[in-house]
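Hi R.,

Here are the chain sequences for the assembly we discussed:
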Amino acid sequence: MHNRSLPPLLLLGIAAFASLAGLPPAQSAEPSPIRKSLARISNTAQEPNYKQPWLPGFTGGSSGTGWVVSKDRILTNAHVVSNARFLTLEKENDPKKYIAEVEHVAHDCDLAVLKVQDPTFFTGTIPLELGSIPDIETEVSVYGYPIGGDRLSVTRGVVSRIDFRPYAHSGLDSHLTIQIDAAINPGNSGGPVLQKGKVVGVAFQGFSGDVAQNVGYMIPTPVIRRFLEDIKDGTYDRYMDLSLSMFNTLNPAMRRGLGLPNDDRGVFVSSVASAGVCNGHVKPGDVILAIDSLPVASDGTVELEGERVQMAEVAERKFRGDSIRLALWRNRAQTEVTVPLSHAWPFTMQSNQFDVLPTYVLYGGLLFQPLSRNLLSSVQFQNPRLSYMFEAFVPRELYKDHPEVIVLSAILADPINTYLSEFKDGVLEEVDGTPVRTLADVASAFAKPADFHVLKFIGNGRPLVLERSVVDAARERIRTRYGVRQEQLLETAAR
Amino acid sequence: MRPFLLLPALCLASISLSAPQAAAAALERAPAAAPSAKATASSAQATALAQASAPAANDLQASQKNIVRVSVTSQSYDFSRPWSKRAPATRRAIGAVLPGGRVLVTAECVANANYIELENPDGNHKEPATIECVDYEANLALLKPDSAAFLEGQPGVGFEGTRIGDSLSVLQLEANGQVQSSSGKVTTAEVTRYPIDDSSFLVCRLSVPLQMRDSMLSLPVLKDGKLAGLMLRYDSQSSLLDFIPSIVIEHFLKDAKNTPYEGFPRMGCSFSLTRDPQLRRYLGLNGNNGGVLISQILRGGPAEKAGLLKGDVLLEIEGNPIDSDGNYKDADYGRVSLGHLVSTKHFEGQKVKVKVWREGKSLTLEVPVARRKPQQYLSEPYIIDRAPQYFVLGGLVLQELSRQYLKEFGADWSRKGPMELVQMDRIQSELPEDGIKRAVVLTRVLPSDVTIGYEDLRNLLVTAINGMPLTCLADVPKAMAKATDGLHRIEFKGDPCLIFLDAKAAEANGQALQRAYGLPALSRLE
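And here is the predicted structure of the full complex:
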């Protein structure tokens, strides 16, 4: 389920280390089995540099919490270990630093599993057991290493609310979330929330104090279990999404127009994304009456385990390769389709990306990059067409013509491009008469011999003309002047 | 994200004031403020005397007779509630008296006027006036007092052209009727934007310190006692005053003698600069060093009629060579954009001779220049003095897309406004020809039992009703007649793609809606 509007959520990793000197070493109180299973995670991360993608990026430190989830694995948040270059774990009452690495990471639900190089880390640790969804108003305890001290911290609160909410880490996904009122702070990220000795969630995000007080969120166990189940085959296949847009059938005239009986059932399918799993199975204009035999109400909800939840929750619990049965109302008759959940949503430009290198082509001092949330958050663009293309990418299916939206994101000033500033922030449509669909198209167009390369930008009647001989003559000069180590990167190889 | 929370005070904001000054300018003169106003007035007089040079003194004498105060009470429509107007607001300006008993002010001070009142400088005589002619693009308006006797003894000013370096004076009025003249030098002249988006004409810039007064809209600018222009905007931080030069005013006045008023014509094409040597070599423009590349031709516009093509290089207009920056050499203003030559030196329907370079040959074409009227846009660039159209269909509020509607989302409308509508407005010239005159938009829903489930719909493009594609709002009643099985079938571009409305219930609901939401009428289609 994709969500486009986000509240200002705060992720709970500590970005910079705060140290307080002069505190006496704490007396270890009665050793609880839980504290033996916790780890403080220190991450030395490198954020890619989208303004100068040929540079290695910015290095910084952050820390969070992890816990032993199985015999020899640690569970934490994806955002605690994102873009990691070097990860270390520390245990309570153990001076050693253990080197860890990410085994599986799920950015769409903000979870990760870590391996530890030295097996002695797990000596004496007890894997924590997963519980179920706690009841509202019941008490929970949060364990972790938040700001304010170096040692383990425990806070306590009650379950405030259980809801489908956005996950800030990817910026796009929403899943089941549990809100608690225990104090959770930067550094708590990845730490377990316990009730009666069992893990009922992983603390992961909250609001900063000036937005809301005592609002912390944890990832509930259905999401954790789904992640652990998904990676059992060795790869994480991401969440399955129906990629449909739906509208309620509450209005009696709407129901009559669609020929539906007056039984408060069914949700109207307004559009079917052509790149989604339902394409070819569901059509716009269909009404979904049931999903996996669960009746769908006219507002798009189903009853699942005693709770009314969005229909999307049914797909949320599935895995790649599973299928979903939909009872449809089509042409005033009931029909049934089985939708194979063959692939996750293929386009990721609308969500935050991690552990990838920014792709680019630099030619004649002109930097071409595919439009993405990452690019938009690091470069200030003036052209409103870019924000339209970003927002409309899925709803208007811009991906059909532009699987990648190629932006002229920067111009490294040089005599050969001094008259080209009007093209900055423009969207490349065509090079030498060939439509540009991906960054690779740009690279291959420039690789072909030509006297002039003629570039067309969307909405600009003037061609951008680059004379091959002039560009070739300037190439070394631009490389040296701007310290460009590499003129293009086409594969966003995971590092 | 509701549009109706943001209420810009003026539909045309042009004067850039710093915040406290803006507040002061927006207030009407209150009695309590009078003493302090007097204090600043006398100190201002002192400065003015110190600055006054010989020509300024001339201006003072001549102008005494030829300026009037103008008070305009205006009321603009609220485009997010198209059936209602905003609270009235009063603007004050100084108008220039013209021969023939007319008063010239900028158009933005009379925009959406309900009542216009003139007042002689002494303040002992007031007279209602009406608009005789107005051009919101050129930002000029001609006012006619109800009684011709009001301007007796005020013969009116003549016009004088301006050159860079000229010393000009700007006239203001003290509360006591004293004329306040401040002088400065003309620094630049260039074709740049006027208050209405996308309209550009010649603007001259004067460097002059001015005291802020409540009549800072439209001030006469004089040269040797003659009218050199009208103030367009003033930036108090840099003390720079932009004014509409007399050449633009004279075009307006000459045109105003004809009915109907036609306005400033255009060629109907856009151009790009050709300074880039690589572009010039590609275009084969090696022989000379001027010309601009025609980058877009307006569909059905003058350039298209004349046979101009995208990709042509425009070399000359009426024998004036065009340089690679799109400028020609004007006898009075030096290098200025060709827009001035086309718009201000020609009238509607005149044929303008242009020389273009196409496929290695030059050819001469005649462009029958014409103004593109706001009504000819898919999304009207401005709607002033006209009530917005709307149609309430059982609680669904339907309106035509216009820039004026989008501006209800605030100054930042192009970022904060509804994405699909903003994009449509911005790229309207790129859209394919499909017979659509106006985009019909479901702007909001007035909830009632007929619209259950539809309460949250807003800013959706309506493509068809009952199978009939909509080309403008006036099509809606015709389409409604085609209801089948007692249902209206309404199709949108976007989500949802389709809804149904009970035709009978929607009809019957009209009165209840009018009562509940205080609507004077369920539609306005003229």
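Chain B touches chain A through 43 residues (CB under 8 Å). The two ends of chain B are 30 Å apart (CA to CA).

Let me know if anything looks off.

Best,
T.
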